[in-house]
Design goal:
Four copies of one chain form a homotetramer. The first copy, chain A, is an all-alpha fold. Chain A is built from six helices and no strands. In chain A, helix 1 packs across helix 4 and helix 2 packs antiparallel against helix 4.
Chain lengths: 116, 116, 116, 116
């Protein structure tokens, strides 16, 4: 379970104490999610991470991966809190949409989904 | 609450039914998070979203914002599931780190955090 | 003028001397362009850069902007060189496409281009 | 050769005719570069592009790659024009910096450059 409401409340207090709420516009938070996502990606910029998940368990990279992933999640939670979006509900809705869009029989073993 | 374990299980079945697990390397999932984050950002590419959150409640944009945000969250959950990462734990840890890094008295009302 | 052929040759030698050509796959170079673009964007993550261009002339930020912009350009040149793409030709072609897509009378003073 | 001055002039007229100059703030153009870079990356989101450059010559993908690469280049040229930055000069300077930062003997055949 992710207690996103509790995390959202903590982030609210965090921003309030620093008077950062003024900077948390939709565009700025969307920018922040993208910037943090790119920092996660940077860890796999060259050869690393193209094969298996054991490459991610290595201690030299593990803590960096966790920090970047946490940053993305926290900004997603902050964005949803500011916008009044229910993350569990939209996640379920999106999975249902994807199930319609990509029926197993048409996409099995294929990555053509993104080739169109 | 986000039932990330249940969502992760659904995503596992989803990938298994389509034989997509082979494409879900660390690098590819990190790429996917970045691509979806950029699609959210694209909604605010020009003037929109620089002011307030009422710009996001408008029905012309609301559903797109929700879909992109859901995509990001789902790939974050999938990445964490593959890597064996506890999202609630890393989120709490990152907030604690940020509290140390940005003491309120040094950063109040300032965006210099990112100017260094 | 940008002497992209000369720059491409320098980048070729640079990669050859370090045996980095093996890492310069299409996906890795596309990742690198995205990562560097995000580093440029990060300089404007919060309030800065939303108003005018005098914010970019300030010496505290100028050299960082120049370095990130150069990184993007160099990876674009490297990608084009590896793919055998003529950058001047595709730039001209894209401008012609945009002129068709966005006739002045339909888009004057409007940012709706990206709102559809 | 890339005639970036001529392309910059065309982009200036293009923006002026549509009264888009008002939208071309530093942050918005940096956002645009990042968004287009991500669209290029999306073409290689899954398995494609991890091996060789022959994957990029295929006609099913070639024109998309060229369009996205052109978009990135055009926004880079537009950004530089607005900021008064000489692209050839900063590209040469960045290569010189990289040569210092990554001496061949210390980085040969290694991708550790990004692992630190």
């Amino acid at each position: 379970m992710i207690d996103n409401q509790k995390l959202a409340n903590t982030l609210r207090s965090f921003a309030a104490e620093r008077e950062w709420d003024q900077f948390h516009t939709p565009k700025n938070l969307a920018t922040s999610i993208a910037v943090e996502a790119s920092e996660l990606l940077e860890l796999f910029q060259w050869s690393r991470g193209q094969k298996g998940w054991d490459e991610v368990t290595d201690s030299s990279i593990r803590s960096k991966v966790e920090e970047e992933l946490a940053d993305i999640l926290l900004y997603v939670i902050r964005f949803a809190d500011k916008a009044g979006i229910d993350l569990q509900a939209i996640a379920e809705r999106k999975i249902a949409l994807n199930a319609q869009k990509y029926p197993p029989e048409g996409f099995r073993g294929s990555d053509r989904k993104y080739d169109e």
